[in-house]
Amino acid sequence: MLNQLPDGFSALVIGASGGIGRAVTDAVLASERPGSVVGVSRQKTSHPDPRFESLVLDVGQTDGLAALESHLEGRPLHFVFNAIGILHDVDSGIAPEKKLADLDAEAMTRLFHINAITPALLLKALEGNFKGRHTALFASLSARVGSIGDNHLGGWYAYRASKAAHNMLMKTAAVELRRLNPEMTVVCLHPGTTDTALSLPFQERVPEGKLFTPSFVAERLLAVLDKLPKQESGLFLDWAGKPVPW
Ligand SMILES: NC(=O)c1ccc[n+]([C@@H]2O[C@H](COP(=O)([O-])OP(=O)(O)OC[C@H]3O[C@@H](n4cnc5c(N)ncnc54)[C@H](OP(=O)(O)O)[C@@H]3O)[C@@H](O)[C@H]2O)c1
C-alpha cells in the first residue's frame, strides 16, 4: 500500500469521522507500513491501533487550521487524505438546487467554503510539513459532478461549482508545491457513489451495483494512489484510476 512512501510514513486524514474518511483511516491502519496516522475531525474518533491519534478541531475555522498547523509543526508529512465535504444539510435547510430559482447565496457560500476554500487553506497550513525532499502525497476528494466537461444533466449548482473550484485550487497548488518539493504530488479523486450520510437522500436513483461501500472505495482509492505516475501532479482521477475530464 502506498509503496511510493517510505516505511513508517506519517499520515493525516482530514474528516476522519466521515463515511469515506473513516474507511480510509481503517484501510491505512490495516497495513504495517504507516508509522503514525492522525485523524482530524470535529468529533473525537477512535481506533484501537496505537499508531492512531485523534485530533479534534474544525478545519473549516481559522483557529482550527492554526491549531492543526501548530500541532504538526516540524513533522514532515508523507500522506494527507482530505475527506471533508458537504452536499446537503437538513438543519440549515441546504439541499442541492434543481433550478436557478433555488439558488441561495448563504448556502452557496457554505458549500464553497467547505468544499473548495478549506482544502486550499489546508494546503496552506501544511505547507511547512510538505517542504523538503521527502515523498509527499495530498489526495483530496472531489466529485465527478464537479467536472465542467462532463456536465450534461445540470442542477446541483453549488456542489458542482464548489467541486470545480476545488479542482482548480488543487491543480494550481500542485504546480506551486512541486517547486517547494519535487517529490510532492497533489491529486483530486472521485470516489464513485458511496453509501455514506452525504449520498443517503439520493441513493434511490443509483443503479443496481453502483452504490459502493466505504471500505470498497477506500481500498480502490488507495490502489489508485499506489499507481500514480511519479512525474505528474494535479491529476483528477476516479476510483478506477481513469482520468475525469476537468
Ligand atoms: N458519498 C458519495 O457518494 C460521494 C460521491 C462523490 C464525492 N464524494 C465526496 O467525498 C467526500 C467525503 O464524503 P462522504 O461521502 O464520506 O460524506 P460524509 O460521511 O458526510 O463525510 C463528510 C465529512 O466532511 C466533514 N464536514 C462536513 N462539513 C464540515 C464542516 N463544516 N467543517 C468541517 N468538516 C466538515 C464531516 O465532518 P463531521 O463528521 O464533523 O460533520 C465528515 O468528516 C466529500 O468531499 C464528498 O463531496 C462523496
Explain what this protein looks like in three dimensions.
With 246 residues, the protein is an alpha/beta fold. The protein has one domain (9-238): NAD(P)-binding Rossmann-like Domain (Rossmann fold). It has 5 helices and 7 strands. The chain has a 7-stranded parallel beta sheet, with helices on both faces. The chain is globular, with a radius of gyration of 17 Å. The mean pLDDT is 97. The protein binds NADP nicotinamide-adenine-dinucleotide phosphate. NADP nicotinamide-adenine-dinucleotide phosphate (NAP) binds next to helix 1.
**Estimated share of beta-strand residues:** 15-25%
- Unreliable stretches (pLDDT < 50, length at least 5) are none
| Name given to the CATH homologous superfamily | NAD(P)-binding Rossmann-like Domain
- pLDDT averaged over residues: 97
Please give a quick description of this structure:
The chain is an alpha/beta fold. 35% of the residues lie in helices and 16% in strands.
